[in-house]
Amino acid sequence: MAAAAAAVMAAAVVLAAVVAAAAAAAQAEVRWEVSYLTLEPLGRAQKVIAINNQFPGPLLNVTTNQNVRVNVQNNLDEPLLITWDGIQMRMNSWQDGVSGTNCPIPPGWNWTYQFQLKDQIGSFFYFPSLGLQRAAGGYGPITVNNRATVPVPFGQPDGDITLFIGDWYTNSHIELRNMLDDGKDLGVPDAILINGKGPYRYDTALVPDDLQYETVGVEPGKTYRFRVHNVGISTSLNFRIQNHNMLLVEAEGTYTNQQNYTNLDIHVGQSCSFLVTMDQNASTDYYIVASPRFVSNPQWSQVTGVALLQYSNSKGKASGPLPDAPNDYYDKYYSINQAKSIRMNTSAGAARQNPQGSFHYGSINITHTFVLMNEVPLRINGNRRRTINRISYSPPETPLRLADLHNLSGVYTTDFPAMPSDMPAKIASSALNASYKGFLEIIFQNNDTDVQTYHLDGYSFFVVGMDYGLWTPDRRNEYNRWDAISRCTTQVFPGGWTAVLVSLDNVGLWNLRAEKLDNWYRGQEVYVKVADPLGYNITEMIMPDNVLYCGLLKDRQKPQIHESNSKSSAQAEAGWSNRLLATVMLVVAAVIFS
Description:
This is Monocopper oxidase-like protein SKU5. The chain is mainly β and about 600 residues long. The chain has helices at about 1-25, 175-180, 330-340, 400-405, 515-520, 570-594, and strands spanning about 25-40, 45-50, 60-65, 65-75, 80-85, 110-115, 120-130, 140-145, 160-170, 190-195, 215-220, 225-230, 235-240, 245-250, 255-260, 265, 270-275, 285-290, 305-310, 370-375, 380, 385, 390-395, 425-430, 430-435, 440-445, 450-455, 460-470, 485, 490, 495-505, 510-515, 525-530. The chain has a six-stranded mixed sheet with strand order 10-9-12-17-14-15, with no helix packed on it. It has a five-stranded mixed sheet with strand order 11-19-18-13-16. A hairpin with a 6-residue loop joins strand 1 (about 25-40) and strand 2. It is globular.
């Protein structure tokens, strides 16, 4: 008995130290005003979603384990949620910013996200997650820096440059939503934007005069870190910088084996960072290009994003043909081999000093397998929908996480099929049940003719295999079990499969979605429920004090007292520490009485 008591006291001391460390961590605190802004990215006025009058939005520049507090004021005319692509929200799905975990911020209201960047580094982005709003902007960069005690596996760059690439329509996000609701496809986009700007006039027949384009200024001989994010709607893009090698060093929070690329396919929702040395003659500027991949319509050849790389001693604008893309617009073998070449740097530390390769994922037994199949759009109840395992997800008015906390029945089910079947397709609100501390294998089977990209909130997964054809269990023999890249968004090639492995150590309800906005909007998503058998709020942060209510719980919502900039950091820090301490006490109680 005495030994047990001593063990409990020791655990309490350790947990108290965790609380103290978290409370002492420096806090990044910002306030964002989310509003419409009228711009002319393609020469005609249109409303974009801006943050603090910036499009793209401001950089959130933070460090591993730092506490972050973002007060969001919704000045739009529709509800808003901000999600944090790749930020794992450890123990804290309450802050994830998707419809399954959060009620939206009503127009005119504000809400404060508060979370810790626990054990993460790398290049990520944030964006509005509801109703195709990302098609109007609202996105911005997140850079999570190494702590000073953990060395970066390359020399300090001379500068840090963020590039957002993505397809763009002159139609508003509301008009695009209406098109999808009417069963139409969005068609060929009007342009590929780079940092919210139209293309440089590389071709006078294709690009109108007087468009504002992005110019990246550099110094000869210096090396820069380029962080590139595909934040578009549905288009895979090939990224390249004329006459310059791009040394890939990181992908979505994992340091990679360093190798040079002359071009790289970056799919919707993916992020990569490169080191690029300015080692070319400065007689002219150089093209920075993002061009569509996996498209067959000839119109796509007229839609290319072009910016300029400008040396400080440049003697003139870039001219002539753009640097070549891969040989064929539908060269799937080139792209899949390139994807397989991206591997983890197993000897480098990242969020911690121990090497990334010290977690031997390849030797862990798989406890459960999900085979998730998408196919061509299906008609369900007269509507054109997207499905996973023939289920098209419909978000309930009450978030799943709140429904669980308040023991509400009928909001959603946990009978989502873990394997494909030939059952009739249906619209449903259902989740996949997963076992806390299990080791999950997910097979994404793409039975469509387009590239798919899938993202999992709350986690990174090891991309251990991908190929064409139908996945079968014997393909496990081909898995990369040593240095597979760990990331949060993966591509699945047409008629092919991708296998990922993930350690289920983060309790919560986590969104697994198609990152292509049109597919996501039409139902190609599911929530993965990772529940602690001891009960909620044991290993999870307790519900935040400022939680919003909606749906079946709307009567609980009180009139909002708008937070002002004058609210002290001390108050915010106290709230954070109290929530974390409450969680610790629940864990200690569970240990004592177990």
